[in-house]
Amino acid sequence: MTFTIPIDNGDALKNAETDSQRTLYPYVTGTSIVAIKYKDGVLMASDMGGSYGSTLRYKNIERVKAIGKHSLLGASGEISDFQEILRYLDELVLNDNMWDDGNSLGPKEVHNYLTRVMYNRRNKFNPLWNTLVLGGVKNGQSYLGMVSMIGVSFEDNHVATGFGNHLARPILRDEWHADLSFEDGVKLLEKCMRVLLYRDRSAINKLQIAKITEEGVTVSQPYSLKTFWEFQAFHNPTAGAQGSW
């Protein structure tokens, strides 16, 4: 009996060393974040759903987190990439605290840092698959900005990600004003989240609203909105659609 012994010339090892992994498609994702400035600071709303593909697999995912003393971060997109971003920010805040010089990172600095991180990963063709919303208050000044997964960033008085950018922003343009009270701001966010619940298949009726002021960050306990499903358009939503029965 003859045995053949394979000889490895090292090519397989070289290929393994040069191969790199990319986020080709997000697996577990969160949907819209909606945020506004109000007279005392910034309000931010998100639901707690996590979709595995098109399946609402997880229903207890917190997508709004406090960053340091002055900032609040919300994210839609890939949950594992969001966790990686939080790890980066924990290291950034820890390094800032180690200086112990009486200064601390403000929301503008954190926003600029996130813009650089997202753009850097985009240039490596290995993006972090998230759209981020960064709000905060420092020295009496409210700040609200957004960063896309390819590093495009801007500031505004109200921002929204995902479906919220299409469905919530028109509501915010009509009803937002700079002197919003906390109660009116929450009502405005709830109106936006209710519209998204009706129209976005990835949204669930379990949400959190966070606020940040000079005093710090407060994140609400999860709660549900009152809904009304008897609108005529809901009874036969495909009526008149091409190819419908």
Automatic annotation (TrEMBL):
InterPro entries: Ntn_hydrolases_N, Proteasome_alpha, Proteasome_beta4, Proteasome_bsu_CS, Proteasome_sua/b, Proteasome_suB-type. It is found in: Cytoplasm; Nucleus. PROSITE patterns: PROTEASOME_BETA_1, PROTEASOME_BETA_2. Component of the 20S core complex of the 26S proteasome. The 26S proteasome is composed of a core protease (CP), known as the 20S proteasome, capped at one or both ends by the 19S regulatory particle (RP/PA700). The 20S proteasome core is composed of 28 subunits that are arranged in four stacked rings, resulting in a barrel-shaped structure. The two end rings are each formed by seven alpha subunits, and the two central rings are each formed by seven beta subunits. The catalytic chamber with the active sites is on the inside of the barrel. Non-catalytic component of the proteasome. Belongs to the peptidase T1B family. This is Proteasome subunit beta. It comes from Brassica napus.
